[in-house]
Amino acid sequence: MKKPEILAPVGSAEALTAALRCGADAVYLGTQRFNARRSASNFEEASLEQTAFLCHTHGAKLYLTLNTLASDAEADDLRRTIASAAAAGVDALIVQDMGVARLARESCDVPLHASTQTSVQTAEGVAVLRDMGFSRVVVPRELRREELSEIREKTDLEIETFVHGALCMCVSGQCLLSAVFGGRSGNRGLCAQPCRLPFAAPGGTGHDLSLKDLSLLPYLRELRDLGIDSFKIEGRMKRPEYVAAAVTACRAALDGADDSEIFELLRRVFSRSGFTDGYYTGNLGRSMFGTRQKEDVTAAQGALQTLGKLYETQTPRYPVTFSFVCRAREPVQLTAASGDYRVTVQGEKPVPAQNRATDAAAVRKQLQKCGGTLFSPETIQIELDDGLFLPASALNALRRDALDGLLQKIGVAPEYTYHETKEPHLPHEAGRRKLFVRFADESQIPEGFRADRIILPLYCGAGTVARYGAAVEIPRGLFGRAQEVREKLHACREAGVREATFASLDGLALAKECGLAPIAGFGSNVFNTLSLRELEARGVSAALVSPELALSAARDLGGDLPRGVFVYGRLPLMLMRNCPQKNGKTCRECQRRGELTDRKGVTFPIECRSGCAELLNDRPVYLLDKQKDIRNADFALVYFTKETAAECADILRAYGTCAEPTGSFTRGMAFKGVE
């Protein structure tokens, strides 16, 4: 059975040292741009080649994170980063943005890993990733054991799963909380973690968006038996001691060693009142919630010094055999061999000994001095004429040159082809702007209402969706429910429904399979022209531009695919599998609707549908009076959630008259965009 890879987070040079010295099989890190932890120290692009070499000499792979949304304005910088990564010989690129994936796929042959930020949750979505050229998928942390097993059985892609580290309340790639609160986008690598602040559900603890850290260390051998290829540790913002502890604990757990001591040290170094395995085991609810307490911080102080010793010195990785030959009047020669690698170096000629001649013991003594390197001497063969002298400095230089030569061979990076690709970019020219209206249910639809396209959620039922000639909205959260959704989509198709909106590639796959024209809707994170072109190539008929993209940037997007902008509605801030209400009450008590109150007394509605919960913003985005600022958009999306039919009718009249807002509202990110 193939041994799974232990994949370590690296946010700094010291963390890289900790990961490699503790035996990580691979590391993932980012440069200053395009990575989901832009606040970490990260690495300069100019250092990628040396960093890759260091990893490869330690027998570890290097994966570069390009796992954020990229704008058209950043396209040239993105090309340079991809070119640098290919030249450096990184082992894979971790990608979220479909446009970034398209650019990387067409410009080089570096392997692509699909970030968990792609929000792909099913085997159907993984199949689309495979078709797009990905060789590995990083699956969501929210998967249950059975769901993970099903994906493993249905794909030949490598599967990477998180086994330790922080848990976000939101499904990766579906969070707008930080962006809406302060313009710092989690999809762009600058999440400010507002979810760790007080948010109170009735009966909860007051921190009802804060989960304990994940730890699946007790299940690593089970995950190995399931066929998981890579065990990923979260934590590029954390200390090197944490990285050392997590890698060491994973190694011990996988090897079946007694890991209780290191596991306890790991808990002390960083946890939020302990760990949870709730998603994997299916035990959702209050036991999963936790915060960083004063006791946790105090406990860490004593553990850090102990954990620092884990990577204090370099542990040898390679046994080496030396063959030393010293003949009169000939340059001295040393051959070093390790595994399949072999290097021969020459030194100066020996001279006749004036006093004490160099003997085999003296040679052996110097060649054995491999401390602090990746090599440990295994055997030393010596051929030495009598009466010759060679200074210890010359022997040391021979040893260093031979070991350096071995390292150069061991650290050889993969070679990739790279060629510059640029597609013509002309801003899209839209025709008459259409009106798309999404209703949460049938009761909101005003009598006699007409729009270019109505959208109704799948839970409304095939008959209702068909009766209004609507497109059906596929849920954003499909965990373990692909077959159920498939059957309902088939029913919609048979009832006469012709279109479906989707958020993730899971929904795209199911829509196409069921014969429905797919529309990229809310949650699809369309941020650039390349993404529009990629979606068009995948058979998508229209796409909603990300509400994180400023209207000015949306105006300049190219490509031919019809696109639209979000002009009204409460933005869904989070998609959650573990509902925050469960920290205070049962689902029966909740009745699918609840709310959270922040530290300022602001209330945020919660909607529970289709197996997941959504946290809505407290007020709607309102751009109905700013339609003159919306250019080159083929449709405007009005997105109703909690409104009554009368309120919906008022908003739709306001759309027609471009009326100014009344009551509480926000402009969202329409004019300022996000960092």
Short description:
The protein contains 21 helices and 30 strands. It is α/β, with parallel strands linked by helices. The chain has 3 domains: 5-167 and 211-311, Alpha-Beta Barrel (TIM Barrel); 318-410; 434-657, TIM Barrel.
Give an overview in words.
With 675 residues, the protein is of the alpha/beta class. It has 3 domains: 5-167 and 211-311, TIM Barrel (Alpha-Beta Barrel); 318-410; 434-657, TIM Barrel, CATH 3.20.20. Helix 9 (240-255) crosses helix 12 and helix 16 (482-495) packs across helix 17 (505-513). It is elongated. The model has no long low-confidence stretch (mean pLDDT 94).
List keywords for this structure.
675 residues, alpha/beta, 8-stranded parallel barrel, 21 helices
